[in-house]
Every structure is written in C-alpha cells, then in structure tokens.
Amino acid sequence: MKELLMGNEAVALGALAAGVQVVAGYPGTPSSEALETIAKRNPGNVHVEWSVNEKASVEVAAGAACAGARSMVTMKQMGLNVASDPVMCINYVGVKGGMVIYVADDPGPISSQTEQDTRAFARYLRIPLFDCDSPEQAFYAVQDAFEFSEKHETPVILRATTRVCHACADIDVPDIAAPEKCEGFVKDPKWVIFPKRSYQAKMKLAADEPAFAEEFSSYLSGEGKLAGNSMEGAGRTGIACGGISYAYVKEAIRGFEENFKILKIATPYPFPERLAKEFMMSVDKVIVFEELDPYIEDALIYTLGRMGSSAGPFIEGKRTGAVPAGGELSASVVSGIIERVTGLETGIASSVYDDAPAMPVRPPVLCAGCPHRGAFYAVKKAVGGQKAVYCGDIGCYTLGNAAPLDMVDTCLCMGAGITMAQGLNHADPDTVNFAFVGDSTFFASGITGTVNGVYNQADMILCVLDNSTTAMTGHQPHPGMGITMMGKRVTPIDIAKVLEGIGVESVRTVDPLDLTESVQAVKAAMEEHGVRAIIFKSPCIAITKPSGSVFVDKDACVGCVRCIREIGCPALITRADKAFVDKSLCTGCGLCAQICPVGCIGREESL
Predict the structure, then answer these.
(1) Average pLDDT of each block of 10 consecutive residues along the chain (607 residues)?
(2) Are the C-beta atoms of residues 261 and 239 closer than 8 Å to each other?
(3) How far apart are CA 373 and CA 570, in angstroms?
C-alpha cells in the first residue's frame, strides 16, 4: 500500500520490512520518530525500547545481533559520541544477525551543539556507512544495510540528515509480517574481545576496506532501484554529491541537465574508488556539494592522487571556498554556486527563491507555565547577590540562559553540568556552584557525575528539574515515568532514592510553582556542604491540563511590570503601560501572581 511517510518513518518501516527483531535507542532530534514508528507499527514480537542512553542501546542491539537477530539502534549525531565505546568494539567482534546503527545528523545545526559529520566518524570506526538522500531511498537503503551487515558480519551505519528525516514522500509499503525467531546465541570464543584477537580483527578490517569499496562501486541505483550510488548525465562539468545535497543539485540544474555529469555517493565509507575514478576521467571540472565536512571532496582528491595523474579535473568545494564550510545547503545556494563557478545561469538562484519573504524571527523561549521557569527564578531569588555559577545541561532548561532569567552559565553536553560544577568548585571554592539537569538526562548521564561528586567530596547543589517526561525531543518515556516503549507499566525509578542510594545525604523535593517553598529549599541547601540535591518536581505543561488562567486587575496594577521583567513568561505582555495576560497562552501556573508586589494578579478557574 502506498503511504505518505516522513523520512524517519520510512527508515522504521524499511527496518520492519527487513525483519528487524530488536530496536533500541535514545531520543534525539532529528532521529526520534524512527523508533516511535516501529513501536506504533510493531507486528507483535519486535522488542522496542528507549534505553537510558545511546551506549546502553548499542549494547542491547549488539547482544541481540550476536544471537542472530536483526537489530537496529537509533540516535542523533551527538548520541554517537555517547555510543562510541561499544560501537568502536562491535566491529572488531562482529555480528551474526544484521545490525544497523541509524544516526541522524543535524546540519545547521538546528537542534544540536555541533555540526558533527557521521561519515567521518564511520571512517574512524571502520564501519561501513550508507547515506540517505530521500525518504524513498532511505526505505530501501535500510533493507540493503541489513543485507550487507548480515553478509559480512559487520555492523552498518545508516546516516540521514534533518531534511531527509523530516521530509515526506509516497512510498509503497509491503505488508509487515512478524519476524521469525532467531537461532539464539551460540557460544564461541570470538564473542570475547582479547588483545590478540583484537589485532587479528584489526587486520581483517584493514583487508575488508578495499573489498567493500569495490563492492560499493558496483552498488548502483537505476532501473527501478532507488538505493545505491549512481553516475548520470554526459556533460563535461562534474558534480559530486551525496545525501540531501543530491536533491538540491537535481533541482538546481533542472532544464540544464545536459551540461553536467552527476556522481551520487550513497556509500561514503568505504569510498567507491573505482566508480569515482571512472567519473573523474570523464569530466573536466568537479564541483562537490555536501553538507557538514568536505568528506566526498577529500575522498576525490585522495583518489585523484592515487591515480597518479597530474591532468585530472580541478575539484571545487569547501576546501577551495566555493561551497560554504558550514550550515545547510539549498537548491538556491547550489544554483548560485554553479552560476559563479561555471558562468551558466540556471535562473533558480535569482528568480525563484530570492523573492520569498523572510521567515519571522522567533527566539527560543520556555513555554508559558513551564515549571523550569519557577525553579530558575527560585534559585535566583535565594542566591541574591552571592557569587554563584549556574551549570546547565541539554534539554528545554537550556533556555534558562535567556534574559530575563540568565540562569545558565555553561552548557557542554548531556550530564556535563554536574561534573563541570565540581571542577568549578575545586578551582574556586568560594563560589556557590549549581548544576541543573532534567529527569531524563539524570538517568541518561547524570548519575555517574553525581557519584563522582560524592566520592571526590565536591561542594555543589544539584537541581533536578523533574517534569516527568523527555520534553525537548517529543515527550518520550524514561525510567522515572513507570511505562516502557512497549506500553508496559513498571515501577518508576525514584530519583530521590537513587540520590540517597549513591550517598547524597541532603535531598529535598519541592514544587517549583510554589515560590516560597522553593526559595526556602534553596536557601537551606546553601547553608549545607558537600553534594546536596533539590528535586523541582512538576509536570511539563505539554502533558498536563492548564488550570484556567490568571488575569491582571488593571485598576490595581501600578505598571511596574515586574512580572514581565523578572520571569519572561510569553503569556505576559504590556498593554497601555500595564501588565496584561494573553489568555490563549496562559496556563494558570500562578508564578506571576506570587511575584506581583501589589497583588493585582488573580486566577480565573477553568470550567
């Protein structure tokens, strides 16, 4: 049946069509919908889980693959850093069932700390990589990746980027049958990694690379086959590209195809060198379009050097400055570069896109009624004028760095706020150091840092912002919520008990929307020493019903707009120089009413 699928959904249904049996992952934009789709379309016996972090998810999938099951892992590019320990080792050990590691890169970046390129990571890991250029191609590429993985007993990385992950296309989806039961684990010394065996594995990986590169040179799309590398056109100006850039190139040269020859790289590692040689020998010049790193460009330059020819085509790309070194590309940008490099006016750069109106600017902000706003404000009020540093983390609460809260001084990577606060404390003991972490992030990567602080006698205040969900990436369940991705009810893991169990002697739990209680808790913690914790517990406004709204008595309002200046709630605006509540946004949290110095803000209860 033909279905309109998002790229992530296409990857998910392609994996189900390939007979995947175990799927694990950790939510991260732009990858999250892949695992969620498998859970929704589960034919009945596929195990699906949100693991506590990416490292755990890879190890779960590796165990399943060693037992002969087909397994898949899902994550964003930052998650590959967390997963790199087992990923670096599983290619040495190998797999029996096919194992696909789905990684979504984020050019821009739109929702990440870095523009990390998984293609370069795959080369470092020595793991074959398939690249996706459209939802349709992704649907078939994931099936080919499983076949390749099983054939060569190696894990395979499937890479997509944001615009592929979230684009939509009509795809013919077959009936999804429940996968057959795998053979099960068979004991063998090869599953245990030892130094001597690792050396032998490294030699095998080195021998496999040219063999895989040759196989990929014959892995071609065309004649109804969407997945694979391709070389098309007969022009003397070559364009090399991969991923979503291929779609941009096709759009940019529409109507002028006879001027170009296009090399599409769908398997960046190992690089299909024979195909690349054939391409470069047939053109006079090459322009390389790719997002993130100059991976294809460098591979072509390297291939050209190995050809030993000084008469090869000149290669334009990121290295020469012809293509932007960072950020996303587009058909408009690609067209403009082609015009500058070749002098051929395609018309797209100047006519179609430049007339479009500019998108409105909307700075990111905590939602109206977000409990994190109350937690940040309570800490700010309790600290007053004392010297303090606020270490943030990855999640909605990173937005606490914006004015007027100004409550996030550092943000590095998931869980790092807790350990950075310890380093700041050891370097400057006279400063009060706070670490803010969300409930999901606490389970993913915060527990280890907390243990480190207790063991090494750090002096810090841990603030766990528990909103009972993984809010930033789409409200996925986590161990503290009492439900799994398989829909099973389980006993929630109590964050307070975890903290007590690892040696945190002072743990307080408060409602961040109760300003008085929260400020008192922070002040009490500041009088103590060592690692102490405050759990600010209140559900995310997106998963709970608003409790009516508040209103401003305009006759009583003195126009100080303190409510607006101090918490920055988007539901609060000024009208006629006085505070005014936008009832379409207000959730009735009442934080502003607790701040108002004249008590002019009241509550309108919901019906």
Answers:
(1) 95 97 95 96 94 95 96 96 94 95 94 91 96 96 97 97 96 90 89 88 94 96 87 95 96 93 97 96 96 96 84 91 94 93 75 65 87 96 95 90 92 92 94 95 94 96 93 86 89 96 97 97 97 96 86 94 94 94 93 95 71
(2) yes
(3) 11
Q: DSSP labels for 321-346?
A: TSS-SSS---HHHHHHHHHHHH----
Pairing relationship of beta strands 601-604 and 549-552 according to DSSP bridges: antiparallel
Helix runs in 281-415, H state only: 295-307, 331-342, 371-383
How many other C-beta atoms can be found within 10 angstroms of the C-beta atom of residue 175? 7
Phi–psi pair at 565, nearest 5 degrees: -65, -30
Phi-psi region of 215 (alpha: psi -120 to 50; beta: other; left: phi over 0): alpha
Determine contact, residues 135/10, Cβ cutoff 8 Å: yes
- Give every CB contact of residue 520 below 8 A, 6+ residues apart in sequence: none
The SS3 assignment for 373 reads: helix
Model pLDDT, residue 193: 85
Q: Coil, strand, or helix at residue 430?
A: coil
Residue with tokens 């403009």: 336
Exposure string (b/e) for 543-552, b if CB count within 10 Å is 16 or more? eeeeebbbbb
Distances (CA, A) of 500 to 48, 218, 355, 508, 530: 31, 58, 60, 11, 13
Query: Does residue 209 contact residue 270 with C-beta atoms inside 8 Å?
Result: yes
* Of 212, 341, 334, 195, residue with least CA distance to 267: 212
Single out the residue of 143, 137, 125 nearest to residue 224, CA to CA.
Answer: 137
Contacts of 215 (CB under 8 A, 6+ apart): none
Residue 393's alpha-carbon distances to 382, 420, 423, 445, in angstroms, are: 21, 10, 15, 11
Q: Interior CA angle at 237 toward 236 and 241, to 5°?
A: 130
Alpha-carbon torsion, ordered 346, 347, 350, 351, to 10 deg: -150
Q: Is 133 within 8 Å of 164 (Cβ atoms)? A: yes
Q: Return d(Cα 252, Cα 348) in angstroms, integer.
A: 6
Single-letter amino acid code for the residue at 460? M
Angle at 421 between CA 418 and CA 424, to 5 degrees: 155
How do strand 2-6 and strand 168-172 relate by DSSP bridges?
antiparallel
> What three-state secondary structure class fits 320?
coil
Please give the torsion angle defined by the CA atoms of residues 420, 422, 428 and 430, in that order, rounded to the nearest 10 degrees.
Answer: 130
Comparing C-alpha atoms, which of 538, 540, 592 is closest to residue 568? 592
Q: What are phi and psi of 33, to 5 degrees?
A: -65, -20
Burial status of residue 314 (CB atoms within 10 A of its CB: 0-12, 13-18, 19 or more): exposed
What is the model's pLDDT at position 607? 40
Fill in the amino acid letter for 566.
E
φ and ψ at residue 74, rounded to 5 degrees: -125, 140
Q: Which helix (H) or strand (E) holds 57?
A: helix 54-66
Amino acid identity for residue 162 in this structure: T
Q: Are the beta carbons of 43 and 175 closer than 8 angstroms?
A: no
